[in-house]
Recover the amino acids of this structure.
């Protein structure tokens, strides 16, 4: 068993990856520190680029950093998994079992990591403002896993639209830079799309810029009341898929 000081960093975003890399250079390579980075994804993607992965316009080889190869070259270890529990007395975290999404077959059993120091760098997540119906009917873009999930549903919707000869509907809640960038990337590669930007009342929305002749897409803006007790009714905005980009909040530790 190594007698080196054990540092575990949970979260491979900008902060977590940068910290692991710098400490790996200064102390990991010299054998002074045992550094482990934990993340539930296999690669790092800069968060403002997630809309490109969701729309399928990203160049994967240029826009992502693979944790395994990066860790091997920068003096730290990478452990794939999602934290399920923390024992502060024993200084141990537990990683949930890895399962297949469809049949829930266990690929890798529950694992444990002991630490001397633990750092959470889990970042922020989309804020649904407690609106009923959002979690059930909308896709968030908080990480590359969710971006790929949106992209899969988006591609399925495109196939259905072309095969049936029907318009492709996309509903995006929020009118900030990410919402407009996602809309632009989703439509610029396709001939026809019907898109709706739902924006909260009393909030300005920047209109995306469209190149004439590239796509026949006229995004409309509908007000979505953000009030206590208000809900999202998917029947009013039929779409496949729908995406929520209406603000951010810090992640909670339970």
């Amino acid at each position: 068993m190594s007698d080196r000081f054990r540092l575990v960093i949970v979260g491979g975003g900008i902060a977590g990856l940068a910290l692991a890399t710098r400490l790996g250079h200064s102390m990991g390579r010299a054998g002074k520190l045992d550094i482990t980075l934990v993340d539930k994804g296999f690669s790092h993607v800069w968060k403002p680029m997630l809309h490109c992965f969701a729309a399928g316009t990203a160049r994967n080889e240029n826009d992502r950093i693979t944790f395994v190869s990066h860790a091997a070259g920068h003096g730290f270890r990478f452990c794939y998994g999602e934290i399920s529990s923390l024992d502060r007395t024993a200084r141990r975290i537990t990683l949930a079992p890895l399962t297949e999404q469809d049949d829930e077959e266990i690929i890798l059993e529950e694992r444990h990591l002991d630490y001397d120091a633990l750092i959470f760098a889990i970042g922020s997540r989309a804020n649904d403002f407690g609106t009923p119906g959002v979690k059930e009917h909308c896709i968030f873009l908080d990480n590359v896993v969710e971006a790929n999930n949106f992209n899969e549903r988006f591609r399925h919707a495109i196939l259905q639209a072309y095969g049936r000869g029907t318009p492709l509907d996309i509903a995006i809640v929020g009118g900030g830079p990410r919402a407009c960038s996602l809309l632009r990337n989703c439509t610029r590669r396709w001939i026809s799309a019907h898109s709706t930007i739902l924006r909260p009342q009393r909030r300005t929305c920047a209109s995306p810029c469209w190149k004439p002749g590239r796509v026949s897409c006229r995004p409309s803006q509908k007000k979505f009341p953000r009030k206590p007790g208000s809900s999202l009714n998917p029947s009013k905005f039929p779409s496949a898929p729908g995406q929520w980009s209406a603000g951010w909040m810090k992640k909670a530790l339970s």
In short: Helices lie at 14-28, 50-55, 60-63, 67-72, 134-137, 144-164, 177-187.
